Queue: 4 jobs
Job 1
Amino acid sequence: MSITIEEVEHVARLARLELKADETEALAADLSKILDYVAALAELDTQGASPLSHLAVTQLPQRADVVVAPLERATALEEAPRASDGAFAVPQFVEEG
């Protein structure tokens, strides 16, 4: 199934998007490929497949537990918006009284 440039422009107007001519052509091609893929999925036999109610993640990916050198205080303070007496300076947000 192919999407026409006019259909892309219509949807862009509805979404209040400003597309250039080359963007419109590229988007039409990409959307056509997506619709072709969905059409191919519709042809699959799903008679015996049970519906999926949720995706259970049994184990989260973890990075290696490697000791690295800490960030130097001077480097951290150089990147801070405000520093005072060797520490981060933050605005006061609680009135003391």
Note: Strands lie at 83-84, 87-88.
Job 2
Amino acid sequence: MISAYHRPGSLDEAIQLLARRAPVTYPLGGGTVLTQPRPDSVEVVDLQALGLNRIETRGNELVIGATATLQAIMESSATSAELKEPLRREAPLNIRNMATAAGTIVACDGRSPFVSALLALDAKMEQSIFDHSSGETRLTNLGEYLPLRTKSLIIKLILPLQVKFAYAAVARTPADKPIVSAALAQWPSGRTRLVIGGFGNSPSLAMDGTEADGLETAARNACHEATDDWGSAEYRMDIAARLTARCAQSIGALR
């Protein structure tokens, strides 16, 4: 239950509200999670008035504001066609019009197509990390955030632009989240990152190397303990390798 609603007019005011030890307070973006019924009492800090919804290119980077909706990112001319596919798979249109970039990260599990893509692209996050009474703003890797999800306010995401990227997934229906997915990124230097999704608490970084050798083996290794109600580890190992090969062929990672 939401017991109190705050709508700060500045980022500093929002950080002060969120940094309090009590009462329990969360940032409110699109409201797709916090507005659902819950047994505990929380206060929310609405971020709508803070201008954190911009999407723009800065040099060789794509900068996405924390409260930019998934649909706005998908429709932006700055977003590559390849990144639009995991965005489309993340949620139906009505939810994409509400769900924000930061909220999707905070609430994600291993089946999230968008977070799988961000992790493969080694996305950076500007966030305010809360201590007892204030927030320290720092730039961190998404991969550092996901295991712990320390209480913070995500301000923006930063993605590289000059990177080849491909995403492929298998799901029970076209509208479902994936049972297995592969997100593959390769930099001009040859650096290659492979993320396997579809299970667990967050997508799994299967490989981050200086070249693309061993991609299919890395995909299989990421699924060794991936048995759940949606599929067995053996099934996922096989499909992950196939999806990875498809992605590698798409971006020309294997020669």
Note: The mean pLDDT is 92.
Job 3
Amino acid sequence: MKMNLSLKNWKPKEVIQFLMANGFVQIKIKKSGDHKCFFNKNTGAYTEIDMGKKSFSAREMLTLSKQSKILRAFWKK
């Protein structure tokens, strides 16, 4: 499977800004580690962001785009 490189190297803060601009809000869930959880009530989408990472690989970004239910085309802009 070929992956688009434009989804590579996003930093956690960039992902969070993008999610919040697209209707996600941070929710509080008791978990260990440095993950932040986000939920979109309009789509029912839920995703977790690992704040301990410097950047996300293309595969991780593909997973985040699927979990967020936001088309990859919008992530690339």
Note: The chain has a mean pLDDT of 87.
Job 4
Amino acid sequence: MFETADDQVKRRKAGDNTVGQEANHRDRWLVSYADLMTLLFALFAVLYAAADRDRAQAVAAALSQQIAGAPAAALGPPGGSGVLPGSDSVTEARAAVEWALAQNELLRARARVLTTGRGFVVSLAEAGFFAAGEAAVRDDARGLIDTLADSLSGARTQIRVEGHTDATPIATARYPSNWELSSARASKVLAQLVARGIAPARLSVAGYASERPVADNNTLEGRALNRRVDLVILNTEQ
């Protein structure tokens, strides 16, 4: 027979404790349902992550941090001293660089992050890092390169430092052509990365002069983009 709410109140007043027990018994299915939903979420998260190796590593790191109870704001840069050690994947190296850019407005204004088939590129514009016709890194830019080095120090990815110029010829006693200037700039940046703790075995250097432009050398804006040093973080497979 159907029991109304008034009947249950009367039973409680009469000292019948089975009313609350029956209610608790009816709600027990919610516990199993919640466990089922949690397991299904974990299953689909694993299946989604397993479709991509780099994504799987990032998901594993995030889950480990959540299980450890670390708040998101306190996690710091990706690949740092969290529960799991930093990965050597290009994906996590890029995440660390982009985190550094987000924290440093001046670096963000002077550097660009680009995606290529080789990996990803952190492009340092001449105007932000070098004096015209010189290879020495400007004093106000040395700290920016240190910041980039720190963001990449936890990875094991290979980094090629590439120097580029525009098509305007140069002929000085120190740099007879753009080949020497582009190589010298790349070497200066590489030396600073090594001094900051990047393992030399991870690094290589190249100078391309004006042979690999990214913009039109017939315009001021294009030439400014072509005068650069690129940090190419190579794909792990390479």
Note: The two ends are 75 Å apart (CA to CA).
